[in-house]
Amino acid sequence: MNPAVEVKVWASCLSAETREASWVDDWYVMPDEVSALCRRLTNEHGTIQALIGYQGTGKTSAILAIDSYLRKSLPSSQDQKFNPPKTVVLKWRRPGELVADLMSRDNALALTVRQSYCVHLIEPWRERETVLKVNTKREELIRFIAATEAMLSLEFSEIEKELGRGLVEPLRYRAFVTALGFARAILIDLPDYSKTDIRRVSSDLEAIYWIWNELTRPPNAPNIVISFQKEMFRGHYFLGKMSRIDLKPLKPERLVEAYRKRFPDAKVFAEDALLLVAKMSRGVFRDFLRYITLAIDHQEQVGASLPITADQVHEAVPIQVLAEDMDQQLAEVFSRQPDLRAEAVKLLLHLEERGPTSQGKVTELLDLRKYTVSRLLNKLEDHRYIKRERNGIENIISLAEA
Question: Fewest CB atoms within 10 A around its CB: which of 162, 182, 272, 366?
Protein backbone atom coordinates (compact mmCIF):
# COMPACT_ATOMS: atom_id res chain seq x y z
CA MET A 1 0.00 0.00 0.00
CA ASN A 2 1.12 3.56 -0.70
CA PRO A 3 2.56 4.78 2.64
CA ALA A 4 0.59 8.04 2.46
CA VAL A 5 -2.64 6.09 1.96
CA GLU A 6 -1.80 3.83 4.92
CA VAL A 7 -1.15 6.83 7.16
CA LYS A 8 -4.35 8.50 5.96
CA VAL A 9 -6.41 5.39 6.77
CA TRP A 10 -4.92 5.37 10.27
CA ALA A 11 -5.52 9.09 10.78
CA SER A 12 -9.13 8.85 9.64
CA CYS A 13 -10.02 6.93 12.85
CA LEU A 14 -10.59 10.00 14.99
CA SER A 15 -12.23 8.24 17.92
CA ALA A 16 -10.80 5.44 20.05
CA GLU A 17 -13.86 3.27 19.39
CA THR A 18 -13.13 3.08 15.64
CA ARG A 19 -9.53 1.85 15.91
CA GLU A 20 -8.18 -1.67 15.68
CA ALA A 21 -8.39 -3.61 18.94
CA SER A 22 -4.61 -3.66 19.58
CA TRP A 23 -4.01 0.09 19.23
CA VAL A 24 -3.64 0.74 22.99
CA ASP A 25 -0.80 -1.77 23.26
CA ASP A 26 0.74 -0.98 19.88
CA TRP A 27 1.08 2.79 19.78
CA TYR A 28 -0.82 4.61 22.51
CA VAL A 29 1.31 7.13 24.41
CA MET A 30 0.05 7.35 27.98
CA PRO A 31 0.06 10.83 29.56
CA ASP A 32 1.94 11.11 32.86
CA GLU A 33 -1.21 11.84 34.87
CA VAL A 34 -2.88 8.70 33.47
CA SER A 35 0.20 6.59 34.33
CA ALA A 36 0.09 7.91 37.90
CA LEU A 37 -3.62 7.13 38.15
CA CYS A 38 -3.05 3.56 36.94
CA ARG A 39 -0.51 2.95 39.68
CA ARG A 40 -2.85 4.35 42.34
CA LEU A 41 -5.76 2.21 41.20
CA THR A 42 -3.79 -0.99 41.74
CA ASN A 43 -3.29 -0.14 45.44
CA GLU A 44 -6.42 1.74 46.51
CA HIS A 45 -10.06 0.86 47.16
CA GLY A 46 -13.23 2.91 47.05
CA THR A 47 -11.87 6.06 45.41
CA ILE A 48 -13.80 8.10 42.87
CA GLN A 49 -11.82 10.02 40.27
CA ALA A 50 -12.92 12.53 37.62
CA LEU A 51 -10.64 12.42 34.57
CA ILE A 52 -11.47 15.66 32.82
CA GLY A 53 -10.42 17.19 29.52
CA TYR A 54 -11.68 19.04 26.48
CA GLN A 55 -13.19 17.20 23.53
CA GLY A 56 -10.53 15.39 21.53
CA THR A 57 -7.87 15.33 24.26
CA GLY A 58 -8.13 11.57 24.64
CA LYS A 59 -10.55 10.86 27.49
CA THR A 60 -11.89 7.65 25.94
CA SER A 61 -8.36 6.59 24.97
CA ALA A 62 -7.25 7.11 28.58
CA ILE A 63 -10.16 5.02 29.88
CA LEU A 64 -9.29 2.15 27.53
CA ALA A 65 -5.60 2.39 28.41
CA ILE A 66 -6.39 2.26 32.16
CA ASP A 67 -8.54 -0.80 31.53
CA SER A 68 -5.71 -2.51 29.63
CA TYR A 69 -3.19 -1.68 32.38
CA LEU A 70 -5.40 -2.94 35.22
CA ARG A 71 -6.33 -6.15 33.43
CA LYS A 72 -2.64 -7.00 33.26
CA SER A 73 -1.79 -5.80 36.78
CA LEU A 74 -4.62 -7.01 39.00
CA PRO A 75 -4.74 -10.66 40.17
CA SER A 76 -7.30 -12.95 38.53
CA SER A 77 -10.04 -14.84 40.36
CA GLN A 78 -9.32 -18.46 41.24
CA ASP A 79 -12.99 -19.43 40.95
CA GLN A 80 -13.55 -21.11 37.58
CA LYS A 81 -17.36 -21.09 37.83
CA PHE A 82 -17.73 -17.45 38.81
CA ASN A 83 -15.08 -15.17 37.34
CA PRO A 84 -16.32 -11.57 37.12
CA PRO A 85 -14.16 -9.03 35.27
CA LYS A 86 -11.50 -7.19 37.26
CA THR A 87 -12.33 -3.96 35.46
CA VAL A 88 -15.55 -2.75 33.89
CA VAL A 89 -15.71 -0.16 31.10
CA LEU A 90 -19.09 1.49 30.61
CA LYS A 91 -19.77 3.74 27.64
CA TRP A 92 -22.39 5.60 29.58
CA ARG A 93 -26.07 5.53 28.71
CA ARG A 94 -29.13 5.59 30.91
CA PRO A 95 -29.09 2.59 33.29
CA GLY A 96 -32.13 0.92 31.70
CA GLU A 97 -30.45 1.03 28.27
CA LEU A 98 -27.13 -0.18 29.68
CA VAL A 99 -28.72 -3.16 31.42
CA ALA A 100 -30.84 -4.15 28.41
CA ASP A 101 -27.74 -4.08 26.21
CA LEU A 102 -25.67 -6.12 28.68
CA MET A 103 -28.35 -8.81 28.97
CA SER A 104 -27.92 -9.54 25.26
CA ARG A 105 -24.12 -9.52 25.10
CA ASP A 106 -21.55 -12.29 25.45
CA ASN A 107 -18.72 -11.07 27.66
CA ALA A 108 -17.56 -11.44 31.26
CA LEU A 109 -19.59 -8.51 32.59
CA ALA A 110 -22.76 -9.62 30.78
CA LEU A 111 -22.38 -13.13 32.19
CA THR A 112 -21.90 -11.73 35.70
CA VAL A 113 -25.02 -9.58 35.32
CA ARG A 114 -27.06 -12.60 34.15
CA GLN A 115 -25.77 -14.77 36.99
CA SER A 116 -26.63 -12.03 39.47
CA TYR A 117 -30.04 -11.58 37.85
CA CYS A 118 -30.74 -15.28 38.27
CA VAL A 119 -30.12 -14.96 42.03
CA HIS A 120 -32.37 -11.90 42.26
CA LEU A 121 -35.18 -13.66 40.40
CA ILE A 122 -35.32 -16.66 42.73
CA GLU A 123 -37.38 -15.12 45.54
CA PRO A 124 -40.24 -13.67 43.43
CA TRP A 125 -40.22 -16.81 41.31
CA ARG A 126 -40.58 -19.04 44.39
CA GLU A 127 -43.54 -16.93 45.48
CA ARG A 128 -45.02 -17.61 42.06
CA GLU A 129 -44.30 -21.33 42.51
CA THR A 130 -46.26 -21.45 45.79
CA VAL A 131 -49.32 -19.91 44.15
CA LEU A 132 -49.08 -22.27 41.18
CA LYS A 133 -48.89 -25.41 43.30
CA VAL A 134 -52.09 -24.48 45.11
CA ASN A 135 -54.21 -23.04 42.31
CA THR A 136 -53.12 -24.21 38.83
CA LYS A 137 -53.58 -27.04 36.44
CA ARG A 138 -50.95 -29.58 35.46
CA GLU A 139 -50.14 -27.83 32.13
CA GLU A 140 -49.31 -24.58 33.88
CA LEU A 141 -47.04 -26.38 36.30
CA ILE A 142 -45.21 -27.99 33.39
CA ARG A 143 -44.74 -24.57 31.78
CA PHE A 144 -43.50 -23.21 35.11
CA ILE A 145 -40.93 -26.03 35.42
CA ALA A 146 -39.73 -25.39 31.85
CA ALA A 147 -39.31 -21.67 32.61
CA THR A 148 -37.39 -22.55 35.78
CA GLU A 149 -35.00 -24.76 33.83
CA ALA A 150 -34.53 -21.94 31.29
CA MET A 151 -33.66 -19.55 34.13
CA LEU A 152 -30.97 -21.91 35.37
CA SER A 153 -29.41 -21.76 31.90
CA LEU A 154 -29.63 -17.93 32.10
CA GLU A 155 -32.52 -17.61 29.65
CA PHE A 156 -35.13 -15.36 31.26
CA SER A 157 -37.70 -14.43 28.62
CA GLU A 158 -40.48 -16.75 29.84
CA ILE A 159 -39.98 -15.82 33.50
CA GLU A 160 -39.99 -12.12 32.64
CA LYS A 161 -43.31 -12.53 30.81
CA GLU A 162 -44.81 -14.16 33.89
CA LEU A 163 -43.48 -11.63 36.40
CA GLY A 164 -44.21 -8.50 34.36
CA ARG A 165 -42.19 -5.41 33.49
CA GLY A 166 -42.94 -3.58 36.74
CA LEU A 167 -41.08 -6.22 38.76
CA VAL A 168 -38.47 -7.17 36.15
CA GLU A 169 -36.89 -3.75 35.55
CA PRO A 170 -35.95 -3.10 39.22
CA LEU A 171 -34.54 -6.62 39.48
CA ARG A 172 -32.46 -6.10 36.35
CA TYR A 173 -31.07 -2.87 37.77
CA ARG A 174 -30.32 -4.56 41.10
CA ALA A 175 -28.46 -7.36 39.27
CA PHE A 176 -26.48 -4.77 37.30
CA VAL A 177 -25.35 -2.93 40.44
CA THR A 178 -24.53 -6.20 42.20
CA ALA A 179 -22.37 -7.29 39.23
CA LEU A 180 -20.48 -3.97 39.29
CA GLY A 181 -19.65 -4.56 42.94
CA PHE A 182 -17.43 -7.54 42.06
CA ALA A 183 -15.06 -5.37 39.99
CA ARG A 184 -11.90 -3.72 41.33
CA ALA A 185 -12.37 -0.72 39.05
CA ILE A 186 -15.34 0.74 37.18
CA LEU A 187 -14.39 3.06 34.32
CA ILE A 188 -17.25 5.23 33.08
CA ASP A 189 -16.81 7.08 29.80
CA LEU A 190 -19.37 9.87 29.68
CA PRO A 191 -20.45 11.20 26.28
CA ASP A 192 -19.49 14.66 25.07
CA TYR A 193 -22.42 16.94 25.83
CA SER A 194 -23.51 20.12 24.12
CA LYS A 195 -23.09 23.20 26.29
CA THR A 196 -26.87 23.57 26.51
CA ASP A 197 -27.41 19.99 27.69
CA ILE A 198 -27.13 20.71 31.43
CA ARG A 199 -30.26 18.71 32.22
CA ARG A 200 -28.84 15.56 30.60
CA VAL A 201 -25.55 16.01 32.46
CA SER A 202 -27.39 16.36 35.77
CA SER A 203 -29.54 13.30 35.05
CA ASP A 204 -26.50 11.14 34.21
CA LEU A 205 -24.59 12.29 37.29
CA GLU A 206 -27.61 11.58 39.48
CA ALA A 207 -27.82 8.01 38.14
CA ILE A 208 -24.09 7.43 38.66
CA TYR A 209 -24.29 8.92 42.15
CA TRP A 210 -26.82 6.31 43.26
CA ILE A 211 -24.73 3.49 41.79
CA TRP A 212 -21.67 4.86 43.62
CA ASN A 213 -23.72 5.18 46.81
CA GLU A 214 -24.65 1.48 46.60
CA LEU A 215 -21.04 0.39 46.05
CA THR A 216 -19.13 2.45 48.63
CA ARG A 217 -19.13 -0.18 51.32
CA PRO A 218 -15.67 -1.02 52.74
CA PRO A 219 -13.39 -2.84 52.74
CA ASN A 220 -13.47 -3.82 49.06
CA ALA A 221 -15.44 -1.05 47.37
CA PRO A 222 -14.39 -0.64 43.74
CA ASN A 223 -12.51 2.39 42.46
CA ILE A 224 -14.56 4.47 40.03
CA VAL A 225 -13.08 6.65 37.28
CA ILE A 226 -15.37 8.94 35.29
CA SER A 227 -14.17 10.68 32.15
CA PHE A 228 -15.71 14.13 32.04
CA GLN A 229 -15.90 16.94 29.53
CA LYS A 230 -13.97 19.85 31.05
CA GLU A 231 -16.33 22.64 30.08
CA MET A 232 -19.26 20.76 31.69
CA PHE A 233 -17.50 19.98 34.99
CA ARG A 234 -19.63 22.26 37.15
CA GLY A 235 -22.90 22.70 38.96
CA HIS A 236 -23.60 19.28 40.52
CA TYR A 237 -23.07 18.27 44.16
CA PHE A 238 -21.63 14.88 43.17
CA LEU A 239 -18.62 16.51 41.49
CA GLY A 240 -17.42 17.73 44.88
CA LYS A 241 -17.00 14.11 46.03
CA MET A 242 -14.55 13.31 43.22
CA SER A 243 -10.80 13.72 43.06
CA ARG A 244 -10.09 15.78 39.95
CA ILE A 245 -7.42 14.76 37.45
CA ASP A 246 -6.90 17.17 34.55
CA LEU A 247 -5.98 15.41 31.32
CA LYS A 248 -3.34 17.76 30.00
CA PRO A 249 -2.65 18.17 26.29
CA LEU A 250 0.23 16.02 25.09
CA LYS A 251 3.48 17.74 24.26
CA PRO A 252 4.22 17.83 20.50
CA GLU A 253 7.04 15.32 20.92
CA ARG A 254 4.64 12.80 22.46
CA LEU A 255 2.27 13.11 19.50
CA VAL A 256 5.17 12.48 17.15
CA GLU A 257 6.16 9.51 19.33
CA ALA A 258 2.70 7.95 18.84
CA TYR A 259 2.99 8.41 15.08
CA ARG A 260 6.48 6.90 15.01
CA LYS A 261 5.39 3.91 17.08
CA ARG A 262 2.71 3.20 14.47
CA PHE A 263 4.80 4.08 11.40
CA PRO A 264 8.47 3.67 12.30
CA ASP A 265 9.63 3.60 8.67
CA ALA A 266 7.13 5.84 6.88
CA LYS A 267 8.60 8.76 4.91
CA VAL A 268 5.33 10.58 4.42
CA PHE A 269 6.31 13.72 6.39
CA ALA A 270 9.60 15.53 6.70
CA GLU A 271 10.68 15.63 10.34
CA ASP A 272 10.04 19.36 10.75
CA ALA A 273 6.67 19.03 8.99
CA LEU A 274 5.46 16.27 11.32
CA LEU A 275 6.58 18.25 14.36
CA LEU A 276 4.75 21.30 12.95
CA VAL A 277 1.54 19.27 12.66
CA ALA A 278 1.98 18.20 16.28
CA LYS A 279 2.55 21.79 17.41
CA MET A 280 -0.47 23.02 15.49
CA SER A 281 -2.57 20.41 17.30
CA ARG A 282 -1.80 21.96 20.72
CA GLY A 283 -1.74 18.50 22.28
CA VAL A 284 -5.20 17.47 21.04
CA PHE A 285 -4.72 14.04 19.49
CA ARG A 286 -7.92 14.21 17.45
CA ASP A 287 -6.71 17.43 15.83
CA PHE A 288 -3.31 15.84 15.20
CA LEU A 289 -5.00 13.10 13.19
CA ARG A 290 -7.23 15.57 11.33
CA TYR A 291 -4.30 17.77 10.32
CA ILE A 292 -2.36 14.74 9.10
CA THR A 293 -5.34 13.89 6.89
CA LEU A 294 -5.62 17.47 5.61
CA ALA A 295 -1.91 17.54 4.78
CA ILE A 296 -2.08 14.27 2.84
CA ASP A 297 -5.23 15.43 1.02
CA HIS A 298 -3.43 18.63 0.04
CA GLN A 299 -0.38 16.70 -1.14
CA GLU A 300 -2.59 14.52 -3.34
CA GLN A 301 -4.49 17.50 -4.75
CA VAL A 302 -1.40 19.47 -5.79
CA GLY A 303 0.45 16.35 -6.94
CA ALA A 304 3.50 17.06 -4.77
CA SER A 305 6.03 14.36 -4.08
CA LEU A 306 6.71 12.90 -0.66
CA PRO A 307 7.77 13.74 1.98
CA ILE A 308 5.31 16.51 2.84
CA THR A 309 7.11 19.72 3.80
CA ALA A 310 6.41 22.28 6.51
CA ASP A 311 5.32 24.83 3.86
CA GLN A 312 2.78 22.34 2.52
CA VAL A 313 1.45 21.77 6.05
CA HIS A 314 0.90 25.54 6.41
CA GLU A 315 -1.03 25.54 3.12
CA ALA A 316 -3.12 22.51 4.12
CA VAL A 317 -3.96 23.76 7.62
CA PRO A 318 -4.48 27.56 7.42
CA ILE A 319 -4.93 29.83 10.41
CA GLN A 320 -8.72 29.87 9.94
CA VAL A 321 -8.91 26.11 10.55
CA LEU A 322 -6.75 26.38 13.65
CA ALA A 323 -8.86 29.23 15.01
CA GLU A 324 -12.05 27.21 14.57
CA ASP A 325 -10.57 24.18 16.32
CA MET A 326 -9.22 26.18 19.24
CA ASP A 327 -12.42 28.18 19.55
CA GLN A 328 -13.86 25.74 22.09
CA GLN A 329 -11.05 26.32 24.59
CA LEU A 330 -10.51 29.99 23.85
CA ALA A 331 -14.22 30.78 23.93
CA GLU A 332 -14.01 30.59 27.71
CA VAL A 333 -10.96 32.86 27.81
CA PHE A 334 -12.38 35.45 25.41
CA SER A 335 -16.09 35.01 26.04
CA ARG A 336 -16.70 38.75 25.58
CA GLN A 337 -13.93 39.39 23.04
CA PRO A 338 -14.42 36.93 20.18
CA ASP A 339 -12.33 39.09 17.85
CA LEU A 340 -9.23 38.29 19.92
CA ARG A 341 -9.51 34.52 19.54
CA ALA A 342 -7.89 34.42 16.09
CA GLU A 343 -5.10 36.71 17.35
CA ALA A 344 -4.58 34.38 20.31
CA VAL A 345 -4.30 31.40 17.96
CA LYS A 346 -1.80 33.27 15.81
CA LEU A 347 0.32 34.12 18.84
CA LEU A 348 0.25 30.62 20.35
CA LEU A 349 1.28 29.04 17.06
CA HIS A 350 4.10 31.54 16.68
CA LEU A 351 5.38 30.67 20.17
CA GLU A 352 5.13 26.94 19.37
CA GLU A 353 7.21 27.37 16.21
CA ARG A 354 9.59 30.20 17.11
CA GLY A 355 9.87 29.95 20.87
CA PRO A 356 10.08 32.85 23.37
CA THR A 357 9.45 36.25 21.80
CA SER A 358 9.69 39.80 23.12
CA GLN A 359 6.44 41.66 23.72
CA GLY A 360 7.51 44.29 21.19
CA LYS A 361 7.89 41.61 18.50
CA VAL A 362 4.49 40.18 19.48
CA THR A 363 2.93 43.62 18.96
CA GLU A 364 4.50 43.77 15.48
CA LEU A 365 3.43 40.22 14.67
CA LEU A 366 -0.21 40.79 15.58
CA ASP A 367 -0.32 44.35 14.19
CA LEU A 368 -2.44 45.51 17.11
CA ARG A 369 -2.28 48.46 19.46
CA LYS A 370 -0.11 48.04 22.53
CA TYR A 371 -2.99 48.16 25.00
CA THR A 372 -4.88 45.48 22.99
CA VAL A 373 -1.81 43.23 23.03
CA SER A 374 -1.46 43.75 26.80
CA ARG A 375 -5.08 42.79 27.33
CA LEU A 376 -4.62 39.69 25.15
CA LEU A 377 -1.48 38.65 27.03
CA ASN A 378 -3.13 39.24 30.41
CA LYS A 379 -5.96 36.89 29.48
CA LEU A 380 -3.66 34.17 28.17
CA GLU A 381 -1.39 34.44 31.20
CA ASP A 382 -4.31 34.29 33.64
CA HIS A 383 -5.44 31.03 31.99
CA ARG A 384 -1.88 29.61 31.96
CA TYR A 385 -1.42 29.53 28.20
CA ILE A 386 1.68 31.75 28.35
CA LYS A 387 4.13 33.18 30.85
CA ARG A 388 5.98 36.49 30.89
CA GLU A 389 9.48 37.06 32.22
CA ARG A 390 11.31 40.36 32.52
CA ASN A 391 14.54 40.68 30.55
CA GLY A 392 15.97 44.16 31.02
CA ILE A 393 13.29 46.61 29.90
CA GLU A 394 11.40 44.05 27.81
CA ASN A 395 8.93 41.30 28.63
CA ILE A 396 9.69 37.92 27.04
CA ILE A 397 6.63 35.87 26.15
CA SER A 398 6.78 32.07 26.09
CA LEU A 399 4.37 29.16 26.35
CA ALA A 400 3.53 28.08 29.87
CA GLU A 401 4.70 24.63 30.86
CA ALA A 402 1.94 22.01 30.57
Answer: 272
